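Thread title: Can someone regenerate the structure for this chain?

I was given the following input by a collaborator and told the matching structure tokens would be attached. They weren't. Posting the sequence so someone can regenerate them.
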Amino acid sequence: MCGIFGYIGTKTNAPEMIFKGLQTLEYRGYDSWGIAILNSNQKLQRQRQTGKIDKKQLKLSGGTIGIGHTRWATHGGVFEKNAHPHLDCNEEIAVLHNGIIENYQELKEELLKKGHHFTSDTDTEVVPHLLEEYVKHSPIKNAVKKTFQRLRGLSALVILYQRTKEIFVVKNGSPIVIGKGQDEYFIASDAVGILPYTNTLLFLNDHELAILGENSLVLEHIDTDKHIKEYFETVSWQQSHVTKGNYKHFMLKEIAEQPQVIRTIAKTQKELIEKQAPRIEHAFGTFFIGSGTASYACLAGTYLFSKIAHIHVNMAPASEFMYLEDFLTPDSLIIPLSQSGETIDIVEPLTRAKKKGSKILAIVNTLGSTIYRLADQTILLQAGPEKAVASTKAYTAKIAVLTYLAYAIAKDSQTGQKKLLESAQEIQRLLKPNTTKTLRSIAKKIARHEHVYLIGRGMSYATALEGALKIKEVSYIHAEGLAGGEIKHGPIALIDKGTPCIVIAPQDETHAAILSNAMELKSRGGYIIGISPKNSPIFDEWIQVKDTGIPLITQVIPLQLLGYFLSLQRGVADPDKPRNLAKSVTVK
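Best answer:
Regenerated them for you:
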């Protein structure tokens, strides 16, 4: 899986456009890349390489049609032979693929018996050979349909066919977006890749086939051959949202954008959120599900709903929800949280929940995404594109929406709005040099350590988990978030002299207890870094975070910045693209 970009139109610099498109999608994470074009002689040409994309590496030139891919290895190691696009034996069909073909082994054995020659270790390579087999007896469109119908698992395919000079796009689960320009079309796995060229987008639905010619688009259902009317949408994201501007990294830029994101939610979402509140009140069982950072936002939501709305909600990591779904009914409400709206660990349980008749209220950041379309109702985060792999502004946007929802259920939206605006103001203060200088100093002191522990109680427990994730994602330090009361039940054995321990101590009902836990750590040699409205003799370092009534939003900002500064201090090559990680995880 990873990034897909394609072009068909009248411009003659397709390789350069595809190359730039792939660079735009670099944030998704990848280990190799490749491009296939039709050259001036209308013959397929291909270039593939391992490692990162560099403008100097592009050897292809000319052409008005082509496709490109950045690969994050699933089947087969990081070798050039495994990079996409993959070709058939005649080198007339080029295929890009995101997802997993679960039955590729049996398909490969069938094709080997028919004399096909394989050159890679991937599951993807069965596709061009299947197409080659079917196109012997059928038009290419029918061959595409027959091939796709034989694949098990969730996949997106982009196929360039030399003979007809067309691109075929079909999907089941994995995302694909088509952009419409002036006498040209763009294909990408993420709208961000297309935004530099057009904001007129079509989000392909599952089992839809798009057939793209030089100036034509035909949509058909893959199973019924029924023609489908085009359904392009205009998105409000701008090109400035997907460039770094004056910032060194996207992560820092996106941290800095959080005050405006919170203000936007506070000022524009009131009516929509109030409309959704009764759905939660009347549901017989409400479930938050998310993956990674989103799962910690879900956990935070359970505390918010308990404290503010006085109602119980359940939460589960999305990848575990399938083991808890036996009790779902048509009266159940599932609330998935996602930045990309494409995370397969969320998509799969939602698909099963819909079969049981359960309702879905999605909180997502991406218009037209799979989760957006699966939902019965949707709240858009309006955070703008998030390009750093480590999520920052999407997390605080989720917390802001959940906070607003909790206050709406409590029939007190005005207080929710007021507290959100106060939080935005406090974030603005935390981003100023006084705080960032302190955090840089702390990062320098603890960067040599391989273990960091974070503790919190109540809502701050979710912050401890999310803060630990940020540190481990971008600095590669082992960081562990813990409930303060749990440290004495085992983890305290890991503390010795100088161990960095971050203590989240808001001025709420948890304050006295979490300071007692901090003292337990300090007495074992822990180096105590306090995040709190007021200083304490227990703290060796103090980061002042004023209490705005929603500490969940403000507490996490210093931890995001600390993770970023630790990554710089430890010489991480690019905090925006941590090793082994991908932004949009569309495989299990």
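Residues 432-573 form a domain with the Rossmann fold fold (CATH 3.40.50.10490).
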